[in-house]
Amino acid sequence: MITKELNKLFNNELDVNVTVIQSNRPDLCDFQIDEAFRLAKELHKSPFEIANNIVDKIKNIDNIDSIISKIEVVNGFVNISVTDSFINKVVKEVATTSKYGVEEDNKKVVMDYGGPNVAKPLHVGHLRSAIIGESIKRILKYKGNDVIADVHLGDYGLQIGEVIYAIQHDGKADDEITLEYLNEAYPRMSGICKENEDIKKECEEITKKMQEGDPEYNRLCDIICNISIKDIKGIYDDLDVSFDLWESERSAYNYIKDVEDILKNKGLLYESQGAMVVDVAEETDSKEIPPMIFQKSNGAYLYGTTDMATIYDRENKYQPDNMLYITDDRQSMHFTQVFRASHKAGITDAVFEHKGFGTVNGTDGKPFKTRAGNAPSLRDLLNETKDIFISKKEENKDMSEEDLNKIVNSIVKFADLQNNLTNDYIFDINKFSNTSGKTGPYMQYTVLRLKKILDNESIPTELSDNIYNEVDRNLRLKITNLCEAFDKAYENRMPSYIVDYIYDLANEANNFYQTNHIAGLDDETKKNDWLYVLNITVNILTDMLKLIGIDIPSYM
RNA sequence: GACUGGGUAGCUCAGCUGGAUAGAGCACUCGCCUUCUAAGCGAAUGGUCAAGGGUUCGAAUCCCUUCUCGGUCACCA
Question: pTM for the whole thing?
Answer without folding.
Answer: 0.94
